[in-house]
Write a structure and sequence with these properties.
It is globular and about 80 Å long. The chain is α/β, with parallel strands linked by helices and about 260 residues long. β5, α6 and β6 form a beta-alpha-beta unit. Strands 2-3-1-4-5-6 form a six-stranded mixed sheet, sandwiched between helices. The termini are far apart. It has two domains: about 55 residues; about 190 residues, Rossmann fold (3-Layer(aba) Sandwich), CATH 3.40.50.300. Helices cover about 50% and strands about 15% of the residues.
């Protein structure tokens, strides 16, 4: 009986001693297999990450170029500063046609006008713009001001009403434009409430701005005064009516974008 118990204990001891060795060997084999598989898994994951990043960058670049193919160029400013005259000059330079009518009477442009796909070239670059010519921004529109241009009362009131709607429409378009030209009359004081309001609205929306000091062909023109009024922006002087200094204007426009 004692001999049988001794033999059982011996077998149990052998098994218990052998088990750890087998266990270690098994773990070692499993570890080796995992080690062999891990590089493949890691490479697969790495490939997916690289592919994702590459696709993301491609989408971003495509998005940027898509925007640049259709840049909405807003033209803003007070009444009679020469906004439509500038729009006409740009369209004549690149399309051979005018964009809108002009007049000495304020608020000739009373609706937002859009000319699409105007391709502008400068040096070896070219960009397509949708030109958005807006009505003149004013803080007050009085029909009696139009009567001083020999308008009848009803005609003056209708013009004032249309001009007011035009101002509201122009402000709404601020949320649509990508880049903005602020056209100012360089013969007048740039520190006006209207000009400060326009610039403030553009700055609040973080829209890139180029200030165009127009009418430099006139004797009272003062570009330096415009530059001092808004030193945070580039200023280019032009005569939109005469087509003067347009080459520098296009250079400044491309530099802005």
């Amino acid at each position: 009986m004692a001999a049988k118990k001794a033999r059982k204990r011996a077998k149990t001891t052998k098994k218990s001693r052998a088990k750890p060795r087998n266990s270690k060997a098994t773990k070692a084999k499993k570890t080796a297999k995992v080690a062999k598989k891990t590089p493949k898994v890691e490479k697969k994951k790495e490939g997916l990450v690289v592919k994702f990043i590459r696709n993301f960058v491609r989408r971003m670049i495509d998005s940027m170029f898509a925007k640049k193919k259709n840049i909405k160029l807003g033209i803003y400013g007070p009444p009679n500063a020469g906004k439509t005259t500038l729009a006409n000059q740009i369209c004549k330079d690149w399309l051979g046609e005018r964009m809108g009518s002009v007049s000495k009477i304020p608020h000739e442009t009373r609706n937002v006008q859009v000319k699409e796909q105007v391709t502008i070239k400068y040096n070896d670059k070219e960009m397509a713009f949708n030109i958005v010519d807006t009505p003149g921004i004013a803080t007050k529109i009085d029909y009696e001001d139009f009567m001083s241009y020999k308008m009848k009362s009803k005609q003056a009131k209708d013009r004032a009403k249309e001009a007011t709607k035009g101002v509201i429409e122009a402000i709404k378009w601020l949320d649509e434009v990508d880049v903005c030209l602020v056209v100012l009359d360089s013969t007048e004081n740039p520190y006006s409430q209207v000009n400060v309001t326009i610039i403030g609205n553009l700055a609040a929306r973080d829209i890139p701005v180029l200030i165009v000091a127009n009418k430099i062909d006139l004797r009272k023109a003062n570009i330096r005064r415009v530059e001092n009024a808004f030193p945070q922006y580039d200023v280019v002087g032009v005569s939109a009516e005469k087509g003067k200094n347009m080459e520098e204007f296009y250079e400044s426009l491309f530099r802005l974008i």
